[in-house]
User: Fold these one by one.
Assistant:
Number 1:
Amino acid sequence: MRLRLSDLRTESNRAVAKQKKSVEIKLDDLGDWRRTHYSSNLTPELDGQDCTVFGWIASIRHQGNITFIVIVDKDGLIQITAKKDEVGKDLYKKVQTLTTHTSIGVKGVLKAIPKAPNGVEVRPKEIKVLGFASVNPPIPLYGRKLPGLDKRLEIRAVDLRRPTAQAVFRIRQEALKAIREHLLKNGYHEIHTPKIISSATEGGAALFPLLFYDKEAFLTQSPQLYKEQLVMAFEKVFEIGPAFRAEQSRTLEHLSEFISVDVEEAYVDYRDAMDRLEAMIREVVGVIKSRCAKELAMLQYEPQLPATFKKFTYNEVLEILAEHGHKVEWGEDLSSAALAKLAEVNPSYYFIIDWPTQSKPFYIAQKKSDPKLSESFDLIFGSLEIASGGTRVSSRRVLEKKNPLRQIEQNWVEHRTEE
Amino acid sequence: MRLRLSDLRTESNRAVAKQKKSVEIKLDDLGDWRRTHYSSNLTPELDGQDCTVFGWIASIRHQGNITFIVIVDKDGLIQITAKKDEVGKDLYKKVQTLTTHTSIGVKGVLKAIPKAPNGVEVRPKEIKVLGFASVNPPIPLYGRKLPGLDKRLEIRAVDLRRPTAQAVFRIRQEALKAIREHLLKNGYHEIHTPKIISSATEGGAALFPLLFYDKEAFLTQSPQLYKEQLVMAFEKVFEIGPAFRAEQSRTLEHLSEFISVDVEEAYVDYRDAMDRLEAMIREVVGVIKSRCAKELAMLQYEPQLPATFKKFTYNEVLEILAEHGHKVEWGEDLSSAALAKLAEVNPSYYFIIDWPTQSKPFYIAQKKSDPKLSESFDLIFGSLEIASGGTRVSSRRVLEKKNPLRQIEQNWVEHRTEE
């Protein structure tokens, strides 16, 4: 039987209650101490070896003349067992002053112990106190039941020590890595475009204005027009970086600042873009499943992929919604309520294609067969729009004609060499 | 003998002179045409195969009843040879209307020809005009002699078709990729921190103010304080993203917006940071040399690495400068002139360590042996500062004491749990 994270919860609470404010502790220097093992490197086979480990104290339990300390490092937990008759008076006294969330280094000997995390504990010879926690977080960090988001955000840096929080961040990192790998492997060139711009990209609204020296400027909503220009040299480009939108509605679907994955390619149309997106998502989900099995288990989530990403036209979607008693005026965007209704029919990934031309930006091409419709798509996951795209207008004349309506500065298009 | 880029230059100029403004050309649709080969995939062994290629016209040369078109795609050049008696009247007529920088697709047959780029040319059967260049860039894009930067920036999107410009971008991409690979491989977690902040990170100056809804906010100068908080959970983190500085001096060493590589690690000091930096740069330079040999040759540049990255203390640097007749007041930063002088002694990578505490941010630790000096470094390449860092202050009390001087909002440190 191994120590579980939930066992730490009571200990942590007890420690909080015991502690007094403003305890004075002299901090040790790191000096020449360097880590020899992360928690993930510890196995019973290392029994008898010397080690230096570091971490933050997750729990302390005093039991007669033995003190059990569990520290957490970036990979997990390590149990430190200090026996009074083994460590000597001075070190044992120091151990008694330690508090949860204090940062320590431990030099000691590894000992195989079935009950300890990873089956190993450390018998300390020396301990350094590198940071001292005189006040403990007002919320328990371990265990299943979480306090509200507001409380957690108040102490976000410490809150992120929670294993489930870390699992989310590790999956996020692997997802971005898999996206980048997929795009690089397929010949896309990674770019970084300016975030401070002199005019709007997607239309006039939703911009954050700033003072660039003595001039007004804005934060980019997307690298759209930059990447369109860059395909004229690089053909296939992508950017992973921040985008900024002064959204007026505060919902879970709207963020003022977010990391955006932008892809652009020459000599293809919106169907190729959808194929690329579907292939990329399939690969990313596969990678996450294999590289983050532990994290997914911790979050009790298993990503599902449909056999194909279905494609519904905007007109079909309006019919489906009408059948379900949800009326949408032709030309209107789909509300959160409409998307929630659609999620009942299609709970996973699907595309909505051929949106009304009037509802898409000026650079999206209209359909030859029906100019009221555009060669465009949104990718939906459940009730969430996660991507959108479309065929670009390639005629300079058409762009110039549509452009003034959107109040985009002329200089965005004046150096396009195509007609 | 193969066609050289410099040969294209004269052609390009001639084409510019010939062209009239506002030529009317009906654009073709991409339809179901898709590329079968990039220029890089073409080899004489493909003789006789069908192909579909795309690109922008780099040159057109009419020679009796034959027209030679060279197009450029993301990987290089492709020669298209249209013979009047082979392609038929209609297609030959269409070929005569083409202009340089026009974007075309070509379906045809590959033919091994020693003189063509890659030893292959395309004999066209059909050509689509996907974008038409009625005006050509006022500067030649090929050839060694470049026009001024201002002129090139005016038509930057087209200017980036220059092979040497592309070489710079490809090396840049590979460098960032190698940096990321090095850090991920060594257990660093990739993070993305907010770029809109409510207060300064490095001090009060050099910030761009913006309007965040109805509040004043700023663009981040660096992810410094965020990454320091995040090591409390992840221990080893890095971010590659934009940083913004309202620099008052406009020199080659100062940018208002740039991509910054930020690394942070717990339980180490500034010497470890220097070791990591040196190891990373050695790996990155090695990767560039092997993956970008072609691009380096094109730029006629060979990266050099010194046997070790020497470490000079700030005090030693002042002595060296004094010996060379360059006086710097103790505590002052090194001017561009001082760094240029040092570059004569150390033309490659070297560290300057132990800077005056007063000249470094509040979160940099002072040296135990001499509190006037700090555990800090700058990494210099020639006369350019390319990185800086230092040991962090780990005592909450010390941070709080130094903090007000720098006018950092209290909430940046109030939730640190360490003393």
Number 2:
Amino acid sequence: MTNQLFVKMVLDAWFTQVKEATNLFDQLSNDQLQQEVSPDRNRGTYLLGHLAAVHDRMLPLLNFGEQLYPELMDYLNLPDKSMTKTINTDTLKEYWMNINATLAGRFNDLQVDEWFQRHNAVSAENFLKEPHRNKLNVVISRTNHLAYHLGQLVLLKK
Amino acid sequence: MTNQLFVKMVLDAWFTQVKEATNLFDQLSNDQLQQEVSPDRNRGTYLLGHLAAVHDRMLPLLNFGEQLYPELMDYLNLPDKSMTKTINTDTLKEYWMNINATLAGRFNDLQVDEWFQRHNAVSAENFLKEPHRNKLNVVISRTNHLAYHLGQLVLLKK
């Protein structure tokens, strides 16, 4: 019961942030997403690609399968100004929706106890010493990551 | 044991964000904190006051006692541009440190089970139906709130 409650608390926070970000991406025009969040900073469309990439990488990290769109990796590995091959904003929005829907499906399938198993970036040996490095903890840290960039994206609103 | 692990996961995320914000406030000069995070948006010093106010309000919300600095309330209730009586940045930094240190002390004193008790913005009656509205959940949501504004404050760095 308590484990279930805890999982709910963490997932509620995740879904709240994903929903806020999705609503914001819907509100912003593609022109607005082409703007920088502050002078000489990342453009909205880059942050959209970056967030999609980080969420896509959660699939292998949580042992849910392969990432859906390996072409997003530049949005993880390169800064905005160094990108030579960008993906158009509408496609990024579609990726964003599909990735989060896929994650939501896998989250819902997961049994409560499975959330407390290790994620794939920690070895079985280290996990014995650091049991907090479990799948649910990945969701906590990615929720904060999303909130961080959401605070920037909201600056694009008129 | 598992409850203890949950609490650790949530508090680790909280302390990580508080530490990052504190390091950032230390790095930024008072001149930088006077700047807006993006044109016509909040100034850094306002966001510092706002975060201090939100954290200060956690004291009564979590039943830890009265808020330390009621003079911060304008940073919750008024937008930056409507403030008539601001507090100077060095004082806000001092408040920020004291408030977070006070919270840390109270967090450390709390027994694991007490984290799953209701916070003061939910009635005993509603808490029966919504047991996720506990003290630990306040920390989850305030951590996301901090990350959101941290993403904005980092734009002030040179």
